[in-house]
Write a structure and sequence with these properties.
Blueprint lengths: L7 E2 H7 L8 H11 L11 E3 L7 E3 L6 H11 L3 H20 L3 H24 L3 H12 L3 H11 L7 H7 L13 H11 L7 H15 L6 H9 L3 H9 L1 H5 L17 E8 L4 E2 L5 E2 L2 E7 L5 E7 L4 H14 L5 E5 L7 H4 L18 H4 L3 E5 L9 H11 L27 E2 H17 L14 H11 L15 E7 L7 E3 L2 E3 L11 E6 L8 E4 L5 E5 L1 E2 L7 H25 L4 H6 L26 E2 L2 E2 L12 H17 L1
Helix pairs in contact: 1-2, 4-8, 5-6, 5-8, 9-10
InterPro entries: DNA-bd_dom_put_sf, Homeodomain-like_sf, Integrase_cat-core, Mu-type_HTH, Mu_I-gamma, Phage_Mu_transposase, RNaseH-like_sf, RNaseH_sf
GO molecular function, one term: DNA binding
Protein name: Transposase
């Protein structure tokens, strides 16, 4: 009920068996007539017409004798609390239904409420009977008295604070009435309509007509079915006919306040394929890929790199440019793609879900630098603010007049008339992109909460950087994001390194002649120094490039000769610093030779005896007696005997 007063019919009062009242319906009806319970002055207060089947009247306990009222109150006293909860619930439903009404029906309800309030005030101020007040107000407001009485019947038993929605409750008109339609036919029509092929109403109705003839269904006109379908929730229709992604667009996107951040506290990155045909140095034509890093606080583009495809080297080098120029961010929001989730970038991060995380996994560059990574929803541009910057660049950079003829459009159906008539050389493309991104960062009047419609992204970033100093990378940390190349061997004569058709050299390479080393380098800047490590990973030093010179360039020859002299001079100084003693000083430190007589030393070398040939051709050579020495007589005799024995054997 809407209040604490309950209404009872004559039969209900008889069944209660209250003291001082008859126990039959006929007895209660006789009491009503005798005591004039249905006095028109008390309509809506003490009695009202019953709306249920059979009609009749209903009465409040105020028409009953005092003893009967006391007994009735005793019976209904316990459920008062529950009745109050039900009253609040019904009041809520009444006002909720009123809010859903169209404005013209609300206006009619307000007019009825105003008229009733005028009647109540007239009765209270003039102390006149209500029927006289109704007659006066009806004439003044040009409203029928019967209408005012009907309005009073609508609000009987209600508190005045709830009269307004009660007066509008019966202004809804008749409920919608539809022509007869079999339930199965309606379900079939909705299933035909709610298909991703997006059939028209006419097509669905023709198919339903064929089904109805086969199944014996009763179907209404196509206009009635259209009204039935329009009662379906619009988001349900969109999901069925346009897909889940289209329905997702009907949900308001989350707006995140980034004013509480500061510069380089959080960054996000993504890859973008430019809608430009570029002529690469090898003669091929293709659309380039850009990897860019953006500051979330200011929306400023911090760094970018260009390559043929989205790969780990591209993203890592762009990350290195950001750290090198601005500092190390605290948080990074990345797309969960294979290139961004590479172990070289995020290895060891506990939030990396693209590849399996192992306990002994080598930490990636971002993990080593202490950057906390967060993965955004794949294929969701709303999750990465940098997507909005890419759209701005496509409009203001890709459509630059210098790219005319090379612009391909943002989809196959949006190709310009001059599609494919030109390809921009890579160097020219990079110059225009660099200029465009610089303008993108410095354009004032940015309509963001941080910029306030006045500042540029760069101004907002610079102001925050002046207050919140970021972490800077050390010289050793700068090597982490460079590409590594193994199996590089130094020259075994001079120690120089020949790499990527260039030569590099530094003095420390003399200590590693012909040895394998590891070099870290920037593949897009091969004229920068190589960072050289030994095979165990220990850093050795930086090796600058040896520039090629012209064959007849005498100035370069002079410079090279001067450099050689300086190197030799430096090594001579090092040699003099290391060799502090002369040979004479070393000789003086040797023990002195004694002056004792020289002992006779028996010869340890025995000269063997080699006699002259005893034959010359087929003739024997005679022995020269003059050649013989006295001590050789015995030996000669033995030899002569040996020769004679050999002849006898032949």
């Amino acid at each position: 009920m809407l209040n604490s007063v309950q209404w009872f019919s004559a039969a209900e009062l008889a069944s209660l068996g209250l003291p001082g009242l008859p126990s039959t319906k006929q007895g209660i009806t006789h009491r009503i007539q005798m005591e004039n319970w249905c006095d028109p002055e008390n309509e809506g207060k003490c009695w009202r017409r019953r709306n249920g089947r059979g009609g009749g009247f209903e009465f409040t306990p105020y028409v009953l004798p005092t003893l009967a009222q006391a007994a009735l109150v005793a019976r209904i006293q316990q459920p008062v609390e529950a009745e109050g909860e039900a009253e609040q619930r019904e009041r809520h439903e009444l006002w909720r239904a009123f809010d859903k009404l169209p404005e013209h029906k609300k206006a009619r309800a307000r007019k009825a409420h105003r008229v009733l309030m005028m009647v109540e005030e007239w009765v209270s101020a003039k102390h006149q009977q209500k029927k006289l007040a109704i007659a006066h107000i009806a004439k003044a407001e040009d409203v029928g008295k019967t209408t005012i009485y009907r309005w009073y019947r609508n609000v009987r038993g209600l508190n005045k604070c709830d009269w307004l929605p009660a007066l509008a409750d019966n202004l809804n008109g008749n409920r919608k009435k539809y022509a007869n339609c079999d339930e199965a036919a309606l379900e079939a029509f909705k299933s035909l309509w709610l298909r991703p092929e997006k059939p028209t109403f006419e097509k669905c109705f023709r198919d339903l007509t064929k089904m109805a003839e086969e199944q014996g269904w009763v179907i209404p006109s196509i206009n009635t079915l259209k009204r039935r379908v329009k009662d379906l929730p619009q988001m349900v229709v969109t999901m069925a006919r346009a897909g889940k992604d289209a329905a997702k667009q009907m949900i308001p996107a989350q707006e995140r306040d980034r004013t509480a951040l500061h510069a380089l506290q959080a960054v996000n990155a993504d890859g973008h394929k430019w809608d430009i045909f570029v002529l690469w140095p090898d003669g091929s034509v293709a659309r380039p890929i850009m990897a860019a890093w953006q500051d979330l606080y200011s929306n400023m583009i911090l760094s970018w790199r260009i390559d043929r495809s989205e790969n780990t080297d591209l993203i890592q080098l762009a990350f290195g440019d950001m750290v090198e120029k601005w500092g190390i961010p605290e948080h990074a929001y990345l797309d969960n793609g294979r290139a961004f989730a590479s172990k070289r970038l995020t290895g060891g991060s506990k939030t990396r879900f693209r590849f399996k995380v192992k306990e002994n996994e080598v930490n990636g560059v971002m993990t080593i630098l202490g950057v906390q990574t967060h993965w955004t929803t794949p294929y969701s541009g709303q999750s990465k603010p940098i997507e909005r910057s890419f759209r701005d660049m496509e409009e203001n950079i890709a459509k630059d007049v210098r790219f005319s003829g090379a612009y391909v459009g943002n989809n196959p159906l949006a190709k310009p008339e001059n599609y494919g008539s030109k390809a921009i050389p890579l160097n020219e493309f990079l110059k225009v992109i660099s200029e465009g991104i610089k303008e993108h960062n410095n354009r004032t009047g940015r309509n963001t909460l941080v910029c306030g419609g006045k500042k540029s992204f760069f101004q907002a970033f610079s102001e925050s950087m002046a207050i919140h100093a970021p972490r800077k990378a050390t010289s050793a940390q700068r090597h982490l994001w460079l590409k590594a190349a193994e199996n590089v061997t130094t020259n075994k004569k001079d120690g120089s390194i020949r790499f990527m058709k260039n030569r590099y050299f530094a003095d420390f390479l003399h200590e590693h002649l012909g040895q394998p080393v590891v070099v870290r380098y920037d593949p897009q800047d091969l004229h920068a120094d190589l960072h050289v490590y030994d095979a165990k990973g220990s850093f050795l030093g930086n090796a600058p490039i040896i520039e090629r010179t012209g064959f007849t360039d005498t100035e370069a020859a002079t410079t090279t000769a001067r450099s050689k002299r300086q190197i030799l001079k430096a090594r001579k100084q090092i040699l003099d610093a290391e060799r502090t003693m002369t040979p004479q000083q070393l000789a003086d430190m040797m023990p002195a030779i004694p002056d004792d007589e020289e002992d006779s030393v028996e010869s340890k070398v025995v000269r063997p005896f080699r006699p002259a040939p005893i034959t010359h051709g087929n003739a024997a050579v005679a022995i020269d007696p003059d050649y013989q020495e006295e001590d050789d007589d015995e030996e000669v005799s033995t030899v002569v005997k040996l020769r004679q024995f050999m002849r006898e054997q032949h």
